[in-house]
Amino acid sequence: MSDNTLGEFLRAHREAVTPADVGLPGGGRRRTPGLRRSELAALAGISVEYLTRLEQGRDRHPSMPVLAALADALRLSADERLRLLNHYKAADGAGRLVGMCQRPPAQSVRSTVRALLDRLEPAPALVINRLGDVLAHTDGYERLTGPIGLLDHRPANLLRYLFADPRARAAYPEWERVADERIALLGLGLRQEDPHVGHLVDELTLAVGAPFTDRLKAPSSPNRTGVEWLRHPQEGELRLSYETLGLSDDDSQLLIAYLPADDATAARLDRLTGRHPGALRAVGG
């Protein structure tokens, strides 16, 4: 079996894309119907020599921005981008991940935290780790976010949903602001020396590109309290006040709790949770 799967993937997709697919003229004799190396290199903003080294396996350590540029130029789908990421990890990333010196992000919560979540019912509330993985949540949170698809994948991840799931832009009318706040809250730009964070950053850089990387570079400060708009498939627009609490310093877990910011949202949340009117009172915001 070849050990140059990254290079073979790039070459196969280059040869499968026609000039017309990317808005280039298709004249002249071609050995294959696909793009020439010079054409793909120009589209991706890299040199022909470097692209040749990647395809031939003589360079197996491209930067993530280079891979993202190639993915954009090749018009890769979301699934194809994930396959490209897997080939990259096999060639380069896997070796870097083996020697991680930092502890993996927690994937569970303490029993006392679960008991606290039970006490917060029927309010939507969740606990996340430093990557934004959803570790635990109330039934109220599942009723709120299940219909928008946030919990479809395990582990559910706030950033993967927000940036890589097309349903997120419909669910959040103020998507741009929510995206800024999510990245600021998790401090990804400051924590990329953590290999686990760096791996997530690489994944989203390749899968999403500029809407993610531009925010990663922009200076920002986290808002641990505020108001968030959510468009629910059954109940329409909800205005939710939220509070964010740090659970401990050594595992970087955060608890986020939501309450209705107005009476209309309070009534809609009561219907979602099946509770009697007034179970969740508006707190303003």
Write up what this structure looks like.
The protein contains 13 helices and 5 strands. Residues 93-101 have low confidence and may be disordered. Strands 2-1-5-4-3 form a 5-stranded antiparallel beta sheet. The chain is an alpha+beta fold and 285 residues long. It has 2 domains: 5-98, lambda repressor-like DNA-binding domains (434 Repressor (Amino-terminal Domain), Orthogonal Bundle); 111-273, Beta-Lactamase, CATH 3.30.450.180.
- Low-pLDDT regions: 93-101
Broad CATH class of the largest domain: Alpha Beta
Shape: elongated
Helix percent band = 40-55%
Q: What is the CATH third-level topology name of the largest domain?
A: Beta-Lactamase
Q: Structural class, please?
A: alpha+beta
Q: Provide a count of the helices.
A: 13
DSSP summary, beta strand count: 5
How many whole angstroms does the radius of gyration measure?
22 Å
Please give the largest β-sheet.
5 strands, antiparallel
Distance between the termini: 60 Å
The proportion of residues in beta strands is: 5-15%
CATH structural architecture of the largest domain: 2-Layer Sandwich
Protein name: XRE family transcriptional regulator
Domain HTH cro/C1-type: 34-81
InterPro entries: Cro/C1-type_HTH (IPR001387), Lambda_DNA-bd_dom_sf (IPR010982), MLTR_LBD (IPR041413)
Organism: Microbispora triticiradicis
Short description:
Residues 34-81 form the HTH cro/C1-type domain. With 285 residues, this protein is of the alpha+beta class.
Structure keywords:
single chain, 285 residues, alpha+beta, 434 Repressor (Amino-terminal Domain), Beta-Lactamase, 2 domains, 5-stranded antiparallel beta sheet, 13 helices, elongated, XRE family transcriptional regulator
